[in-house]
């Protein structure tokens, strides 16, 4: 909570008169129930991210938006979340949350203002309270499915339907929040076309992520990109809304230089403290282990597990941790029924790099699984590989990958540094390809460079132009 209090901003109407508002500790403004919900949300997104430059920028932007809104009497608390995910959301009590992944995607202060004013609009229009009720219902449905339904396919179908229902409910209110948010942003003096630009960036991000994990861009998901779809129609409406307040040739403040200065040096991607992905390798310095996925896999680190998939979508993996009683063998654990279809004859005890482990095969109607349980410290790590067709060659590659699970030394862990957003000025000879070549990312540097800067492949780079790259 000390971290959360430092990284959260408490802003109300008086902030418009005095931009240098001192953040108020959350424990002084939240009820016990609200504090518990805040702690849960912050923990699920890797903690709060504290950066004085970012804190001051967001404080100033929200103060202007509050003063220009329909409800300048409302109080908002903004927390920056230490997550590479692209997300922003609001709770009924006026708590606003924005991830550093979203901040990395935005390219100017007007785009940031469009996101914050959109979420404020949900509070003003009481959407957040309605959405909270829907979310509780969806969670209840999910628990019933996980506790009662034994048919994995049926359970997945029912859960997907509940998520689609929630996302559809949210989408029905997005246009209203867009319109309110554009008005707030424009009255505050920001470029109202920032909303359309950021929606366009989100659409490209959705396509980028979808192709990385072998899914179509329209695949069902209950995240921010699903409930805030950047469809051409929605972008067109956002532009039309903006034209009610300003013409494209005189749009208002974008404050690009100020924004880029604020995010310069911000952590990009996974924070090493929470574990991170570098290509096919997952490394967790704090917990002290590393693991390398088979060739062809793309990994994603989430708060619950490390997930991976091939571009075809025919192979996948999951790495997570559970508690298993010390007196229960790992072979017994794999046979205990926590996953259906285990072939008892395949259960095998082994040692991986000095750690007790066990492995087994499980088969379902459409998927087969090679599972490993590895005892590491007080936890047991479950490494589960899934394949549409578990051939001997594929099974051998899964075994080889599991054998890469090992402890990392303190010296090795201390050397790990996070990747960061670095703002650079283009030189006389710089072009898109040269600048993309400076991206210290594990894959798709050109695509990531274009996406981060909101530019096209054929963009002309001007001398002295400030652009974002990723480096350590």
What fraction, in percent, of the residue positions are helical? Answer: 40-55%
Spatial extent as radius of gyration: 24 Å
- Unreliable spans: 1-8, 12-23, 138-169, 214-223
On the 0 to 100 scale, the average pLDDT is 82
Give the termini separation.
29 Å
Oligomeric nature of the chains: single chain
Instruction: Bin the strand percentage.
Output: 15-25%
Structural class: alpha+beta
Spatial strand order of the main sheet: 9-10-11-15-14-13-12
Molecular shape: globular
Determine the number of helices (DSSP H or I, runs of at least 4 residues): 16
- What is the β-strand count? 18
Largest sheet: 7 strands, antiparallel
For the structure shown, list the relevant keywords.
472 residues, 7-stranded antiparallel sheet, 4-stranded mixed sheet, 41% helix, globular
Task: Explain what the structure shows.
The chain contains 16 helices and 18 strands. The protein is α+β, with helices and mostly antiparallel strands. β12 and β13 form a beta hairpin. It is globular. It starts with a helix and ends with a strand. The model is unreliable at 1-8, 12-23, 138-169 and 214-223 (pLDDT under 50).
Layout of helices and strands:
Blueprint: H1 2-7, E1 8-11, H2 32-44, H3 52-68, E2 76-81, E3 88-90, E4 95-99, H4 100-105, H5 109-124, H6 127-148, H7 152-187, H8 194-212, H9 224-227, H10 232-243, H11 256-263, E5 267-268, E6 276-278, E7 281-284, E8 289-292, E9 297-301, E10 306-310, E11 315-322, H12 330-334, E12 348-352, E13 355-363, E14 368-376, E15 379-387, H13 392-402, E16 406-407, H14 410-414, E17 419-425, H15 432-436, H16 445-453, E18 466-471
Helix pairs in contact: 3-5, 5-7, 5-8, 6-7, 7-10, 8-10, 8-16
